[in-house]
Amino acid sequence: MAQTLVPSLHCPKGVVCNSRRMVSTKLWNSLLVPPQGPRSRKVGNAFKVLAAKTESSGVVSRLEDLLNLDTKPYTDRIIAEYIWIGGTGLDIRSKSRTISKPVEHPSELPKWNYDGSSTGQAPGEDSEVILYPQAIYKDPFRGGNHILVICDCYTPAGEPIPTNKRARAAKIFSEQKVVNEVPWYGIEQEYTLLQTDVKWPLGWPVGGYPGPQGPYYCAVGADKSFGRDISDAHYKACLYAGINISGTNGEVMPGQWEYQVGPSVGIEAGDDIWCSRYLLERITEQAGVVLTLDPKPIEGDWNGAGCHTNYSTKSMREDGGFEVIKKAILNLSLRHHDHISAYGEGNERRLTGKHETASINTFSWGVANRGCSVRVGRETEQKGKGYLEDRRPASNMDPYVVTSLLAETTLLWEPTLESEALAAHKLQLQV
Predict the structure, then answer these.
(1) Which of 67, 86, 104 is the last residue of a domain?
(2) What is the rounded average pLDDT of the residues 130-135?
(3) Which neighbouring-strand residues pair with 149?
(4) How many domains does the chain have?
(5) pLDDT tens digits, residue range 364-416?
(6) Cα–Cα distance between 2 and 179 in angstroms, integer?
(7) 379 belongs to a structural domain
(8) Domain of 29?
(9) Residues 195-215: tens digit of each pLDDT
(10) Among 12-16, 53-57, 128-132, where is mean pLDDT lowest?
């Protein structure tokens, strides 16, 4: 049979084909000139079989087989992925260890340590930082009984290190007055997907801009929606892990997405958001896309990225709760600068008074007004109870800081009578 020497055919992603190969003339012609009629489908199948038989494709297949192995029939041991927050306050770190059997509570897990000098959290001469397991989630990447473990960080003497924001939040949420009010949080995490090599939003022409904002929010279509597979994969991964994710949507700026987590109670809100961010980092890593939580990734007439935080207490959710909400808003107005300073790096580039934001320098609130610092829903006003939405937090905020600060300001902090009266007068003028 006659044979033809040809260059390598285009192979699937992840498969390295030989640069030269011998194929029969008949097969080569069948690949170049698809047969007429219904037989054309068979050509595609034949090519797939040919590609699957390459040596490198076999390697990929065997690797996938190993990654998907179910270890439960052979061992009780599981893999626990210990996750913590690094020195920048945004970098998520993790490493794996074997646990002798499945566990149901963080207290069953051992403490662990890591090299804090490599994460900017300890000096080289005393680099050991201790990981305390705090929350467990199912691992959607490994499956089975394998788990993800949210940890916070301590010195060997048992003191929280400076970047451990969870410890202080847990203390606030353990205050009896806070416990009695059962604080609920619904957090809207916005994020932007970037092309790997150029760090430019997904779907945007390299070095150029798409059409103006308008057709992209909650949009459908190849020319309007970029990154849906990542959003959907993340949605399912969160559900599998046990995170109380409540929805997702495409955002106003193309290449930007949002998901919502909640209602979560107290410290669980911070744990859920950090675990969801870890999942998103892993999924974008696998997709070859860069994730950014920058609050204003593209300067100019483009929406920034926030992390709007919906908040309510037991008293706010009961009859007469609207008056409690207004008292909480008054307290928030008096500590506006304290909150702004803790609501994320670079937030001044986002809170300009444009693009559905309030000015960073002025506190405001309103019903159904997305240009305010704090928004109250129309339904809350009508029912006389419900929740408030703090629209100030940036997309890169620390959820432990924001959630605990909201509880502290509205439940534990008491303003002076004079400042309270002055603030009440100012807020009354806004409405």
Answers:
(1) 67
(2) 98
(3) 82, 136
(4) 3
(5) 999 999 999 999 999 999 999 999 999 999 999 999 999 999 999 999 999 87
(6) 81
(7) yes
(8) 3-67
(9) 998 989 999 999 899 999 999
(10) 12-16
10 and 119 in one domain? Answer: no
Which amino acid is residue 216, in one-letter code?
Answer: Y
The answer on 401 and 367 residing in a single domain is yes
Verify that 242 and 337 share a domain, yes or no. Answer: yes
Say if 72 falls within a structural domain.
no
C-alpha 379, offset from chain centre: 28
Indicate if 63 and 95 belong to the same structural domain.
Answer: no
Mean pLDDT for the chain overall: 88
Environment class of residue 212 by beta-carbon count within 10 Å: exposed (0-12), middle (13-18) or buried (19+)? exposed
Maximum C-alpha span of the chain = 98
In a domain, 168, yes or no: no
Q: In angstroms, rounded to a whole number, what is the distance separating the alpha carbons of residues 64 and 72?
A: 18
Angle between helix 40-52 and helix 25-32 axes, rounded to 10 deg: 120
CA distance 230 to 242: 18
Residue % of the chain over a pLDDT of 90? 79
The residue among 41 and 252 whose pLDDT is bigger is 252
For residue 260, what are the contacts with CB-CB under 8 A and spacing of at least 6? 186, 187, 188, 189, 245, 246, 247, 248
Residue 23 is encoded by which pair of tokens?
């194929």
* Measured distance CA(145)–CA(79) in Å, rounded: 8
Residue whose tokens read 């279509």: 221
User: Does 258 share its domain with 340?
Assistant: yes
Give the pLDDT band of residue 31 (cuts 50, 70, 90): very low
Structure tokens at 10: 């285009």
Query: Structure tokens of 296?
Result: 């204003």
Q: Do residues 111 and 158 make contact, with C-beta atoms less than 8 angstroms apart? A: no
Please check the confidence at residue 345 and state whether its pLDDT lies above 90.
Answer: yes
Do both 196 and 331 map to the same domain? Answer: yes
Give the β-pairing of 307-312 and 290-292.
unpaired
User: Under a CB-based contact definition with an 8 Å cutoff, are residues 140 and 133 in contact?
Assistant: no
Using omega within 30 degrees of 0 as the cis cutoff, is the peptide bond preceding 263 cis? yes
